UniProtKB/TrEMBL annotation:
Residues 337-523 form the GAIN-B domain. Belongs to the G-protein coupled receptor 2 family. Adhesion G-protein coupled receptor (ADGR) subfamily. It is found in: Cell membrane. GO terms for biological process: adenylate cyclase-activating G protein-coupled receptor signaling pathway; cell surface receptor signaling pathway; regulation of skeletal muscle contraction. This is Adhesion G-protein coupled receptor D1. It comes from Ailuropoda melanoleuca (Giant panda).
Length: 840
């Protein structure tokens, strides 16, 4: 191995590093294979620079100069974590020359080589070394391309390269740790044993040098006497191969910042664990340290954002599986069984190495206690050899297993609802047995694995699952890594019992298990959708016509005093609000959700439907003041009525638009978003008004019932009881209490309430016209009177023979003349403090 090193073209030992063996001459610290080329070491501004001098035609500045023999670059490298300023001497973030670049960024190491003659870039990436020394060597030949070796083994390559015209530094100096901006943070690194061969080493030569550099060597007799291996005087080789790894993990935890970089480092550690026996004590320590390290990754502030990428979470789980599998296979059981059991912030764990015949119970269970566990029947352990069993019950991993796309799973049932994502509803539990137990491949056979998991739902999950308008599907799922990446599947598993609190599964295999939940809103059949849609269109169309007729009728009869009072002005405002709201509703069906016109339409719908409810509240308040408690004058009340009817909804809409503009005109319809919760800007005021009006309706109904009962006792007239039923029928449309059926209709199983709500709500305008125009005795009398006036006026100029309208006499209007009162609010109706049942 040192013969290979002695043949190098350029060699910089740099510092003395424990565990890395180097060559030295008797004249200085730097060994140069070709001293005449003038390469020297210089300290400048706290950064180590390896200057090549004025010679441009070399492999350093142009690797193609060494073709066809090629070129080799070799060095030891480790990363130190993020530092706030450059560290002097051989430390820096990258190695740069005019012909190649080596660096670490974004959780990966990279080698990039540039040939100017054909303007090609050759690039390869690999796992960065982490905080312990790693040997990195790369070779290049034009015919073979770029090859990168890590710790003596081929890691990656780029055989062809790509055309690139932008590369390189403006000079040919080789720089280890180029100057950094001291105000910024960057990933600091350390380099040692930098070597250049002006030829491509063979794989055998690379392996021989790496073996010699780390201390496993045999000094050849042909080695020049001027070179000798000098192990550092204070070097102490560890007595256990796993001890340095535990120390590195413990120390590295303190510098964690980027989850991506940390996971890449841990993955690198998991793949390079030594193939050495593990005592129970060392296995327990390594397991605890590694799981604690993983647990601290989950506590990083940036983990919440990173965890949205399911691939990152599944990669973490796979890394844990790899480490635990290595620990179980390396566990030294001696002559009897060995087992380690413990718990960390990451997971509860158990690793056992035993002979199946030593299992005394009818099954093997992990964990031994608790409501979430996996059981394997004893008869499934048919091997007579040593068997390793690894169990893991993750404490928090389920919190990050959400937003799972059904299309990216192997769960056919979930794919039927591809627009509704899955999420973990239980702990993640894993059990691995090697050699695998012999299980039935038929879910109706035996033996089978039993998996019982207690559900761990978030508040959002539980509220969605318990919502009567949703349907929650639970799947016994496991992670399938057979394709190289974790994919959720339910093949070979069946849910046998459970509810929203727990689930019991039977499976034909072992791996990582969890209960996945998919919440799907209940949908009506096409027939019911068409029927309800038809009722809405027909009912709204009829209502529009009736509301127009109502407004025209009130306008025509506005000169008659009985139609000119507060009650009919409130009716008119309510009719107008409902009319505009229903017109906008029908028009909105033609807009495309998510567009600007749809957003504007959603805002208008919000305002006018709220206004309709506000005027329903005014109807209730006015009714209360007339029947239950007479208070104030009409002049003082009409300002409040208009403020409530038109001002209050405007205020709510302004606040809602200010804080939730993006929630209007969503991707579903031209209305307020339900998922963001903005719909409560309509639902909360509407429900409050319904509750208030329902209370007023009950109070008014009691008064009318009492009067009806008194009339029956005095006059014996049973028809008096009809007044109560009539009053309820008249008041329902204007008080909005029919929307109670809308609340009941939220449950799609209560189909009858959906039909009742569709009929009553879409025909609200029809009922207003029916009860407050056609069947209203005051309106009919006023219309007859007005008709006579119009008839006599058109046939004769004399009005003295017109029979006066009774209300005109009551209000002091001269017979045959129109009332001269110009105020729209009639002050006569409250001239006495009495119960005015004309309102109903």
């Amino acid at each position: 191995g040192f013969e290979v090193l002695a043949s190098a073209s350029h060699y910089w030992p740099l510092e003395n590093v424990d565990g890395i063996h180097e060559l030295q001459d008797t004249h200085g610290d730097i060994v140069e294979g070709k001293v005449s080329k003038g390469i020297y070491l210089k300290e400048e501004k706290g950064v180590t620079l390896l200057y090549y001098g004025r010679y441009k035609a070399s492999c350093i500045s142009s690797p193609a100069q060494c073709d066809p023999d090629g070129v080799t670059f070799s060095f030891f490298w480790k990363t130190q974590g993020e530092q706030s300023r450059p560290t002097p001497f051989a430390y820096g973030g990258q190695v740069i020359s005019d012909g190649f670049r080596v660096g670490s960024s974004g959780g990966k190491g990279s080698v990039e080589l540039y040939t100017r003659e054909d303007a090609r870039t050759w690039e390869a990436t690999f796992s960065p070394p982490g905080p312990y020394w790693t040997h990195v060597l790369f070779t290049w030949k034009s015919k073979e391309g770029l090859k990168v070796y890590v710790n003596g083994t081929l890691s990656t390559s780029d055989p062809s390269g790509k055309v690139s015209h932008a590369y390189g530094e403006p000079n040919v100096n080789l720089v280890i740790g180029s100057e950094q901006d001291q105000t910024k943070r960057y990933e600091d690194g350390a380099f040692d044993e930098f070597i250049i061969w002006e030829r491509a080493l063979t794989p055998d030569e690379i392996s021989m040098y790496f073996t010699a550099a780390i201390g496993k060597h045999a000094l050849s007799s042909s080695t020049p006497p001027s070179f000798f291996m000098t192990p550092p005087a204070n070097t102490v080789m560890p007595t256990n191969a796993y001890h340095p790894i535990i120390i590195n993990l413990t120390e590295t935890r303190k510098t964690f910042q980027s989850p991506g970089t940390v996971l890449s480092y841990l993955r690198n550690v998991s793949l390079k664990l030594p193939n050495k026996p593990l005592s129970q004590e060392m296995a327990l320590n390594l397991t605890k340290v590694f799981l604690k390290t993983m647990g601290e990754v989950l506590q990083l502030p940036s983990w919440v954002d990173v965890s949205e990428d399911n691939a990152m979470v599944l990669g973490l789980i796979e890394t844990v599986d790899t480490v635990m599998g290595h620990i179980s296979s390396s566990l030294d059981a001696g002559k009897s069984q060995a087992a380690i059991i413990g718990s960390s912030s990451m997971a509860e764990f158990s690793v056992a190495k035993l002979l199946p015949e030593t299992i005394n119970s009818s099954h093997y269970r992990f964990p031994a206690q608790g409501q979430s566990y996996i059981e394997v029947p004893h008869e499934a352990f048919r091997s007579q050899a040593w068997t390793t069993i690894v169990g893991l019950l993750y404490h928090r991993m389920h919190d990050y297993l959400d937003n799972i796309q059904p299309a990216k799973t192997k769960i056919p049932e979930a794919a039927n609802y591809k627009n509704h994502k899955l999420s973990a509803a239980s702990y993640l539990i894993a059990l691995e047995v090697s050699p695998p137990p012999v299980l039935s491949q038929n879910l109706s056979g035996s033996p089978l694995v039993t998996v019982q998991l207690r559900h761990r739902m978030s508040y959002r999950q539980r509220s969605e699952a318990t919502n009567s308008s949703n349907q929650a599907f639970l799947y016994c799922a496991f992670l399938d890594f057979s394709s190289g990446e974790g994919v959720w599947s339910n093949q070979g598993c069946v849910l046998t019992e459970g509810n929203l609190s727990y689930s019991v599964c039977r499976c034909t295999h072992l791996t990582n298990f969890a209960i996945l939940m998919q919440v799907v809103p209940m949908e009506l059949t096409r027939g019911h959708k068409v029927a309800l849609s038809s009722i809405t269109y027909i009912g709204c169309s009829v209502s529009l016509v009736c509301l127009v007729l109502t407004l025209v009728t009130f306008a025509m009869l506005s000169s008659v005093s009985t139609i000119r009072n507060q009650r009919y002005h409130i009716h008119a405002n309510l009719s107008f609000a409902v009319l505009v709201a229903q017109i906008l509703l029908l028009v909105s069906f033609g807009f495309t959700p998510g567009t600007v016109p749809c957003r504007v339409m959603a805002m208008l719908l919000h305002y006018f439907f709220l206004s309709a409810f506000a005027w329903m509240l005014v109807e209730g308040l006015h009714l209360y003041s007339m029947v239950i408690k007479v208070f104030g004058s009409e002049d003082s009340k009409h300002r409040y009525y208009y403020g409530i009817g038109w001002g209050f909804p405007l205020l709510i809409c302004i606040i809602s638009v200010s804080f939730a503009m993006d929630s209007y005109g969503t991707s579903v319809n031209c209305w307020l978003s339900i998922s963001s919760g903005a719909v409560w800007a309509f639902v909360a005021p509407a429900l409050s008004i319904i509750v208030v009006n329902a209370g007023i309706l009950i109070a008014v109904t009691r008064v009318i019932s009492q009067i009806s009962a008194d009339n029956y006792k005095i006059h014996g007239d049973p028809s008096a009881f009809k007044l109560t039923a009539k009053a309820v029928a008249v008041l329902l449309p204007i008080l909005g209490t029919s929307w109670v059926f809308g609340v009941l209709a939220l449950n799609s199983q209560a189909l009858v309430f959906q039909y009742i709500f569709a009929v009553l709500n879409s025909l609200q305008g029809f009922f207003i016209f029916l009860f407050h125009c056609l069947l209203n005795s005051e309106v009919r009398a006023a219309f007859k009177h007005k008709t006579k006036v119009w008839t006599l006026t058109s046939s004769s100029a004399r009005n003295t023979n017109v029979k006066p309208f009774s209300s005109d006499i009551m209000n002091g209007t001269r017979p045959g003349t129109v009332s001269t009162k110009l105020s729209p609010w009639d002050k006569s109706s409250h001239s006495a403090h009495r119960v005015d049942l004309s309102t109903v």
